[in-house]
Specification:
Two copies of one chain form a homodimer. Chain A is α+β, with helices and mostly antiparallel strands. Chain A contains eight helices and eight strands; from the N terminus they run αααββαααββαβββαβ. Among the domains of chain A are: 4-60, Winged helix-like DNA-binding domain superfamily/Winged helix DNA-binding domain (Arc Repressor Mutant, subunit A); 141-214, SH3 type barrels (Roll). Chain A binds a DNA duplex through α3.
Chain lengths: 216, 216
DNA sequence: TATAAAGTTTAGCCATGGCTAAACTGAAAA
DNA sequence: TTTTCAGTTTAGCCATGGCTAAACTTTATA
């Protein structure tokens, strides 16, 4: 089993990928200094988990990707499990899973997946990778890219930013909710939606983080 | 929050205490070398968690004891939670809780305790310390110290030795089971019990690890 | 095209928590 | 009382994963 730090680096590279990720970008995502990233990326390259081109960036090898997917699977299974059993709020799930994911054995992972009936989405709507890294489909598109006056269903919301999370919560936006975009602000990209007969204005930055599906 | 290593040292000192614990004893319990223990004990003393007399031994301060009880509480709540929700076998619980206990936030600890209805015993019958370190009573006595021909109820079984655990499991010895000691081998201390109308011979070493209560 | 700025890497430091080998203590045996 | 030896501590090493400061690339700007 890899250390917490290594798992965190692989997970961040996966989230920021598949493009080459710069030292600075990775550093700010992990909340460490760029010099620490360079050092660690060299070690990961040595271990065959990462490809690194100096002054250009780093990306996961297939092996690194599989390991990252394993961490993501544990994270999303834990979120689903904690939500189902303890009824934790969507806003608490991420932080708890973030710490527990590194301490989950394969056996416990299997037991949880089995208990939950091998779910394909976590409570934020994010796809849960399979035990061998298979990432379930998904043609979900950013709400910010959708046409007006079509019936849309919210599929995925972000989990890492607690400010965004609580805004979404209080505005009733979570997976499964249906909405229609009624107008778009040409100037700043903000959109006006109808949700459950309520009018809600969503800023473009948030709209780009919410993924929806479009009825045929 | 203290590191995994520090929490492990405190927990071991608690389990081996309250007497002064020698360097060697602590080292073998933690599976590290004595020199590593001496170094760490000095740090813990510096931190006010441990009292150390050179060449004599170490014991927990009140602060160290409270921290140890907090780790034990998390461990035993996790065992209970994993048993109830996932139905894990008593033999798997210990190892999983051992890793997860260090990653459990106060909030999640509270949520689990609440979900379980603030249990006072874990699946091995061990008392679960309260949120402020209160250790629920218990006049349970080692099976090896009990008189013959009295009705006894198994209250606590050990959790750390998987060989002992599986022997107990296959012989139907777990908390709640009633038994009677019919005879004792004067030579090696082994005892012959009647459990559920079956005869079971229990070695003295195992009998000293099983705690029972005696009906008035 | 030369230079400034932004981003990356290197060098060298620190704390943590292991290790081995050697020195030291104290209690039991000679 | 002296010696022995088991147990403890010290000294000094190592890997991990952070950090800062300084050097180096690359890219963009003048």
């Amino acid at each position: 089993m890899y250390s917490v730090a290594i798992e965190d680096y692989l997970k961040s590279l996966w989230k920021l990928g598949p493009k080459d990720v710069g030292t600075q970008e990775l550093a700010s995502h992990l909340d460490v200094k760029p010099a620490s990233v360079t050092k660690m990326v060299l070690r990961l390259t040595e271990m065959g988990l990462v490809d690194h081109t100096p002054y250009k960036g780093a990306s996961l090898t297939r092996q690194g990707e599989l390991e990252a997917l394993s961490v993501v699977r544990r994270h999303r299974l834990l979120e689903t499990f904690l939500s189902q059993t303890l009824g934790l709020g969507r806003d608490q799930l991420h932080a708890e899973a973030e710490r527990l994911e590194h301490a989950l054995s394969k056996e416990l992972e299997d037991a949880i997946a089995n208990y939950l009936g091998n779910p394909v989405r976590d409570p934020h709507g994010h796809p849960i990778p399979g035990p061998n890294g298979e990432l379930p489909g998904g043609f979900d598109i950013p709400l910010s890219d959708c046409p007006l006056n079509k019936s849309l269903t919210v599929m995925q919301i972000p989990d890492y930013d607690s400010l965004v999370s609580s805004w979404l919560e209080t505005n009733g936006i979570f997976p499964g909710v249906k909405l229609i975009i009624e107008s778009r602000d040409d100037f700043d990209g903000g959109i006006n939606c109808k949700i459950d007969n309520n009018e809600v204005r969503i800023s473009s930055s948030i709209a780009s983080l919410v993924k929806v599906s479009q009825e045929d």
